[in-house]
Amino acid sequence: MQKSRAHRHRRSSPRRLGGEVRRPDSGTERRQAGAASERQTADEQGENAALEHEWGSAAHRIGAKIPCRKQVAPMAFEPPLSVHTTKVTRLRTELFIPVVHLEGGELAAAHMNSAIRRSVRQMIEDQGSLADPSSQMTAYYEVKTNERGVFSLSLFNYAFTGGAHGLTLQQSLTFMTADGHNRKLASLFKPGSDYRARLSELVAAQIKSRQIELLQPFEGIRADQDYYIADRALVIWFSIYEITPYVYGFPYFPISVYDLSDIVADEGPLSVMNEN
Asked: What average pLDDT does this structure show over 164-178?
């Protein structure tokens, strides 16, 4: 009982705040507190309004007296090509062929589609006869770049015509969509630049660092070496068995366009990819 009375006594005892003894708020105190709160809210609103006015005036002064920094105009946007797939199926043969569409650029699209069809036909011929009952062929493609007016892709053809294993062929095409013409490797670089020596040196360095096994010592790339463009990289590649054993497949050597910027041709595919 004594503990209960003591507990009740503590609950009803005055509260001490800041050295001053205060009893529970009366109705008068609650009304005074409410009025003070309203005055504080009004004061805060007034301060906020003053800040907004001050900021607006400062922004106006800055805009009126300080000229805007010159902006670098972004390069003109080139919408990507529309690409759809045509499927051709014959006995033991399945071909997936890309067909491009370019609104307002029908002639350029026709050039690109013509080059694609020629490459597809050439690889079919290179694979040889499918007379063997166990033979089969599949053609397909991979788009590597489709931006900034550059369209680069690789076409593949896999065929099994008997023997230990099948063989995959590849052809890569790179177009500027403005005219639709395929660009050979030499056309990517400035006239007179020794692009072969530069690229050969970079490829040789990768062969060494990646410890790629070669069929024979590497002597450099061909003048018309196969390549494609993937974003901001020039990818040099070699056919199966060209420099490496079959197990390596297609050896690829990506080279940053920034490592070639001093010899890249103006207005070419690599020049476009070299821009920020």
From this structure: 96
Dihedral of the alpha carbons of 252, 254, 260, 266, in degrees to the nearest 10: 80
Beta-carbon contacts of residue 151 (< 8 Å; ≥ 6 apart):
81, 100, 112, 143, 145, 174, 175, 177
Locus of tokens 């008997």:
162
pLDDT, one tens digit per residue, over 100-144 is: 999 989 999 999 999 999 999 999 999 999 988 899 999 999 999
Residues whose CB falls within 8 Å of the CB of residue 189, separated by 6 or more in sequence, listed in order? 195, 260, 263, 264, 265, 268, 270
CA distance 119 to 78: 26
Q: How confident is the model at residue 156 (pLDDT cuts 50, 70, 90)?
A: very high
CA distance 107 to 114: 11
The Cα-based distances of 185 to 79, 175, 227 in angstroms read: 24, 11, 7
- Select from 1.10.10.10, 3.90.1150.10, 3.30.565.40, 3.40.50.1580 the CATH code of 75-182: 3.30.565.40
C-alpha 255: how far from its chain's center? Answer: 16
139 near 96, Cβ under 8 Å?
yes
- Name the CATH code of domain 184-276 (choices 3.40.470.10, 3.40.50.1100, 3.90.1150.10, 3.90.640.20): 3.90.640.20
| pLDDT tens by residue, 183-227 | 999 999 999 999 999 999 999 999 999 999 999 999 999 999 999
Q: What is the pTM of this model?
A: 0.72
The C-alpha angle with vertex 185 and arms to 76 and 264, in degrees rounded to 5, equals 50
d(Cα 46, Cα 43) in Å, to the nearest integer? 5
